Amino acid sequence: MSTVVTEHVAQSPRHRTFYLAAGPEDGPLIIFVHGWPELSLSWRHQLPCMASLGFRAIAPDMRGYGRSSVYRTHEAYAQEHIVADMIELLDSLKAEKAVWVGHDWGSPVVWNIASHHPERCLAAASLCVPYYTIERGLDSVIPLVDRRVYPERDYPAGQWEYMRFYEENFAKVTGQFDADPYKLVKALFRKGDPSGVMKPARTAMVRKDGGWFRGAPCAPDVPRDPDVASEEDLQVYAEALKRNSFFGPDSWYVNHAANAAYAARAVNDGHLDMPVLFLAARYDYTCESVTSRLAEPMRARCRNLTEQIIASGHWMAQEKPVQVNAALVQWLATKIPQAWPHWPDV
Question: Which fold has domain 6-339?
């Protein structure tokens, strides 16, 4: 079975989506949706694995990223438009349904596909971000903050303080990132640190510090973490971010009101009946779902839910690809056997 990864473009009158693909063209479809500030490249460990099993594995560059369309208004990055991009991608693949897998801001996209277009979603999986949280707007997650770690007087928005900073100081934060995208991704893409358990996440400090990096104009120059990304990977990320700027990626964070209004129009009162997999990262202290209440709304609204904890930081698919792939494959084989590739008799 070929695991060669190839490059493609889905073009419609409203949007261009670049995507990577691997596996037989007639294989069952599984689509991987990246988050901030990543690329289709983020799924480099998953595409060959799923292709080797006979799936048609797809990973798009999301709007504002890489070789997909870039827009220059904040409103263009509301979830409703991004979901429309993905439905057009599915149409271009001439498929009725897919298994959708998301991470970081890709997770709200997958959750919105599942809750607004269940007929296009065979199953849904998420790394790090549980259902019925940030896709419903920032105000939906603040009541779930663990106040043992984030006293309200010190951290009104808890670990989500950085999102408030984006709303209040968009030009400043985007300028910090655009100043040196290479140093930024080198500093960001790091494995999980067990010493951070029950301590405030760095994202909680952004507002107090007047920006990322304690208010410095750009990211510090720190050594690369080889357990998460190679030098070649970092160069690809940095080049794309330098070319497009962070305006688009950061604009995903400033559409909370529009996203909440869109989420309110979900079908089935927001309940999901298809198989759902949630992989929680034990050492992801922003999307902390192991000891906090962040995953509780998901458990109340997913009727066929599988959960697993991975001993990983936030960049789970890159840090712990073997564990992530094993969890996905086990879930697909046991919960969605009808989606499993059919091998010809020999």
Answer: Rossmann fold (3.40.50)
* Structure tokens belonging to residue 254: 């400033």
Task: Kindly report, residue by residue over 259-272, the tens digit of the pLDDT.
Answer: 999 999 999 999 99
Q: For residues 308 and 279, is the Cβ–Cβ distance under 8 A?
A: yes
Residue 18, classed as helix, strand or coil, is strand
* 3-state DSSP assignment of residue 280: strand
The domains of the chain are located at 6-339
Task: Locate 143 and state its tokens.
Answer: 């009541």
The pTM for the full model equals 0.97
In this structure, what DSSP letter does residue 61 have?
P
CB 19 within 8 A of CB 59: yes
**Peptide bond before residue 337 is cis, with ω within 30 degrees of 0:** no
Per the CB < 8 A criterion, the answer to whether 102 and 125 are in contact is: yes
Residue 58 · residue 32 · CB < 8 Å: yes
Query: Facing residues of 64 across strands?
Result: none
pLDDT digits (tens, 9 = 90+) for 82-91: 999 999 999 9
